[in-house]
Amino acid sequence: xxxxxxxxxxxxxxxxxxxxxxxxxxxxxxxxxxxxxxxxxxxxxxxxxxxxxxxxxxxxxxxxxxxxxxxxxxxxxxxxxxxxxxxxxxxxxxxxxxxxxxxxxxxxxxxxxxxxxxxxxxxxxxxxxxxxxxxxxxxxxxxx
Length: 144
What we know:
The chain is built from two helices and nine strands; from the N terminus they run αβαββββββββ. By secondary structure, the protein is mainly β.
């Protein structure tokens, strides 16, 4: 169901594609995570990001028309349908050295906090939730 929603949403954005493992330059991190998590992907995460007890998902996209700051983050709130729209979308990021991590109950016991961080330094961005929806803030949480 996630794939169908993303394909439908990307149909109106032909300059974007899903980020793949090859877009992440942290090869040792990928190897390490795959030894613990069989289906690990650095640019895809499901969890309840907004605290409504329904799984949401986050993905990273690549703008095929740009050379620099070509990454984007999209978050889709559940329940997911094939015509779901992104609840959050932010373009113009450099995420080559980043990967998703998440922490349940870190900020709010009812939800999971999503991070996109450099696995070596712990620095990156945190997906925050406010009255008007999601927004990104700098993060230096280190879960290594």
